[in-house]
Amino acid sequence: MTLRTRPNILCNYHGEAHLTDEAHHEAKPDRCAGIEFDAIAPDEKGNTFFFKGDHLWNGFRGPAQLTKEFFKELNDHHHLGHVDAAFRMHNKEKPQDHDHIYFFLDDKVFSYYNHTLEEGYPKDIQLDFPGVPSHLDAAVECPSGECTSDSVLFFKGDEVYNYDLATQAVKKRQWAHLPNCTSAFRWLEHHYCFHGHNFTRFNPVSGAVEGTYPKDARRYFMKCANFSHGSDVQVPKCSEVTLDAITSDDSGKTYAFAGHIYMRLDTHRDGKHAFPIGRAWKEVANGVDAVFSYSDKIYFIKGNQVYIYKSAAPSTLIEGYPKSLKDELGIEGPVNAAFVCADHHIVHVIQGQKMRDIDLSATPRMVGSEFPLPLSGIEAGMCGPDGVKVFVGSNYYHYESPMILALSKLNPIPIKITPDIFGCVD
């Protein structure tokens, strides 16, 4: 939150106040000019809103729009419709609250779902969050696993209030090493403090700064001319999507790879975003042929080499790698696709129109079975709870199991890649 003055309507003629408001609304803020956000929060669909005064930005690109066009009641109760703080609730124990956006304005709290104000709101902050002060600067959710329990972090000046959603206990801390946050944002399982036009990533338990910060938000959280950190990726048309590889690790994180970029597919609550492969796995930055996950590790096949990384962040290349395909899996390249089903030890390797099964628990590893496939041109594949998906161009084919894929005589109906799966555009 930033301090601002409100037009004193009672001290002016109505005509003068009306003109002042019109001029104010026409002066749309430009986030690429280096402004300080009042609040940042995603909605239940993963659309992220950046707030400044009575304007907001919907997503990481595009112009400012009036807040009242999305959240009408905020403007009804406050002349400027400004936002002190906002966060998206993470509380699966209370589904009636989970995924709601909570806005804080002065001493009031508003709860929205599907851009509709919930019945009974606004309320005094103390009714919903006892022990949390008014006139906040920032707020951000912290799910269990990232914090010790489902919590919300509230910021006011140099003080941080950790609010436990289950017990309603409040712990007040001072994180002197962290800048005063005017907004805060949890994105892709990381927590960020925004201050000025910069941001700092921090540990939500200790407040420790993680990495080299601050960094300019215009290079990472918005599309601005002359500001880039090398990850500008054009959103492709769905009909043009061609995957090189796809995999889901033991923690449920799903990655799709195409060219030199990758995308997390399990983060619909944060939106889908593409990044350079080198950001997470620098040794294979220029692209991969196949990827599969096994035993808390991710295997990347590139040419005739295998790179193995620890799945847990930050991804670390296992000592001694890369190794040759022959030494690691007992085969020669090239490889078109590879996948492992959960709780199994067999990697199914697709080379041309053949599928070769290799037991990863065996020493040495070698091909145990080989099957001709009914489908040609497979470029990527993965195995999940609902079966096997293999990708050919911008379509995929679904099989109930690897054995059915191997023994089928007829191909199933191709399924088109859609925006809700891959974040592409029609």
Q: Explain this structure to me?
A:
By secondary structure, the protein is mostly beta strands. It is built from six helices and 33 strands. Strands 5, 6, 7, 8 and 9 form a five-stranded antiparallel beta sheet that branches. A hairpin with a 2-residue loop joins strand 15 (190-195) and strand 16 (198-202). It starts with 13 loop residues before the first helix and ends with a helix. Mean pLDDT is 88; it is low at 2-24.
Topology:
Layout: H1 14-26, E1 39-42, E2 48-52, E3 55-58, E4 65-66, H2 72-77, E5 85-88, E6 101-105, E7 108-113, E8 116-117, E9 123-124, H3 125-128, E10 138-142, E11 151-156, E12 159-164, E13 170-174, E14 183-187, E15 190-195, E16 198-202, E17 215-216, E18 245-248, E19 254-258, E20 261-264, E21 274-276, E22 290-294, E23 297-302, E24 305-310, E25 323-324, H4 325-329, E26 337-340, E27 346-351, E28 354-359, E29 367-372, E30 380-384, E31 387-392, E32 395-399, H5 402-407, E33 415-416, H6 419-422
Antiparallel strand pairs: 1-2, 2-3, 3-4, 5-6, 6-7, 7-8, 7-9, 10-11, 11-12, 12-13, 14-15, 15-16, 16-17, 18-19, 19-20, 20-21, 22-23, 23-24, 24-25, 26-27, 27-28, 28-29, 30-31, 31-32, 32-33
Gyration radius, in Å: 25 Å
Largest sheet: 5 strands, antiparallel
Average residue-wise pLDDT: 88
Q: Which spans have pLDDT < 50 for at least 5 consecutive residues? A: 2-24
Tally of helical segments? 6
Q: How much of the sequence is in beta strands?
A: 25-35%
**CATH class membership of the largest domain:** Mainly Beta
Number of distinct beta strands:
33
Global structural class: mainly beta
Known CATH architecture of the largest domain: 4 Propeller
At CATH level 3, the topology of the largest domain is Hemopexin
Shape: elongated
What's the name of the CATH homologous superfamily of the largest domain? Hemopexin-like domain
Q: How far apart are the first and last residues' alpha carbons, in Å?
A: 37 Å
